[in-house]
Design a protein that fits this description.
This protein has 173 residues and is mostly helical. The relative contact order is 0.18. The protein has helices at 3-11, 18-45, 48-74, 80-83, 101-115, 121-137, 143-171.
Length: 173
């Protein structure tokens, strides 16, 4: 199944169930902010793993933004609602579709907790997946946009870890 066919398979589920629509609208509009708030709270109330994950997220997010900006310099994919003249369930800008910034942010958060093997990992991974699926469901991203966002999140954390190691090396000399 190709990217467009999978997009339609998921997005065509919308507008058939008020409960599912409400869940997906919540996930696409608010879940990313709840994840960020949760991570902030854990940075104060959590253990050492959660504090380290928070610092990695703080270092990884600017790297992710930079990677996305570089991608947009060389590749532009219009959003599916623009390409197919659809009405998405949410108001969204007409900027580039690939990669999904929501999926990238959710991946940076979830993968940082994965790296440190936090007990909160399952909750954050489920949230990451829900954010990604919701972006397709509401009609603003293709599946590959979400996968690309997850990949950018993982690459950002890898680069953030390399930056951390370099800083540690130069600061502790």
């Amino acid at each position: 199944m190709d990217n467009t066919a999978l997009f339609f398979k998921i997005s065509n589920l919308s507008r058939h169930s008020q409960i599912l629509d409400s869940l997906m609208l919540f996930a696409t509009d608010y879940l990313i902010y709840l994840m960020a708030l949760f991570v902030l709270i854990l940075s104060f109330k959590g253990g050492i793993k959660e504090k380290k994950a928070f610092l990695l997220i703080i270092l990884g997010l600017p790297v992710a933004v930079l990677i996305i900006k570089v991608i947009h310099l060389f590749y532009y994919e219009p959003r599916p609602f623009v390409t197919f003249q659809l009405a998405p369930l949410v108001k969204e800008t007409m900027d580039a579709s690939f990669p999904s910034r929501h999926a990238t942010i959710a991946a940076v958060i979830a993968f940082a907790y994965t790296y440190f093997k936090s007990r909160w990992l399952p909750l954050l991974l489920i949230s990451m997946v829900l954010v990604g699926i919701s972006r397709i469901y509401v009609g603003v991203h293709y599946p590959l946009d979400v996968l690309g966002g997850s990949a950018v999140g993982a690459i950002s954390l890898y680069l953030a870890l390399q930056i951390k190691n370099l800083l540690k090396f130069y600061l502790l000399r």
